[in-house]
Amino acid sequence: MKPGKSFLLDTQDSYDEFFEDSCLIGLVTSVKSYKFCLRVNKLLNFDFRLNTDIEILLNKKNRNYYFPVYQSNVKHSFTKHFLYSNRNDGEILLPEFKHIDFIWLIKGQVGPGDEFGQMLSLVKSIQDVQLATEIDYMYLEHKEHLIF
């Protein structure tokens, strides 16, 4: 390779692959992440648990920020649910969605629109959930922050 020549890695394909067969839900709630997971587990029969192996690390302002990720696997299915905390110590994981407290990523077999709509309605019915809305990953400016 000639000196001064560099290559740019096109990451768009890997982003598309990561978000293939997935849905994103943005959640606004005043509840701490562990309490929110307990409520979701109890009311919607999930099994969200903190997965420290995939927590997101961002280095901003010469400081490390760790964003917890909770995971729940669907039995007898390839579907996995991930709940990202969008805030940590004043920093935001997805600055383009600074009003969102949690990002719920569903990877795998997501049911038909009606099934997803029913799930969204159930999430909205959880106490202290002020907003639950679908997010199109194409609108994410910082997709790489969700990839583990």
Tags for this model:
3 helices; alpha+beta; 148 residues; 6-stranded antiparallel beta sheet; globular
Could you describe the 3D structure shown?
The chain has 148 residues and is α+β, with helices and mostly antiparallel strands. The protein has one domain. The protein contains three helices and ten strands; from the N terminus they run H-E-H-E-E-E-E-E-E-E-E-H-E. It has a six-stranded antiparallel sheet, with helices on one face. A two-stranded antiparallel ribbon has the order 3-4. It has a two-stranded antiparallel sheet with strand order 7-8. It is globular and about 60 Å long.
Secondary structure elements and pairings:
Blueprint: H1 12-18, E1 22-29, H2 33-44, E2 49-50, E3 56-60, E4 63-67, E5 69-73, E6 80-85, E7 87-88, E8 91-92, E9 102-107, H3 113-124, E10 129-135
Antiparallel strand pairs: 1-9, 1-10, 2-5, 3-4, 5-6, 6-9, 7-8
Protein name: IPExxxVDY family protein
Organism: Arachidicoccus ginsenosidivorans
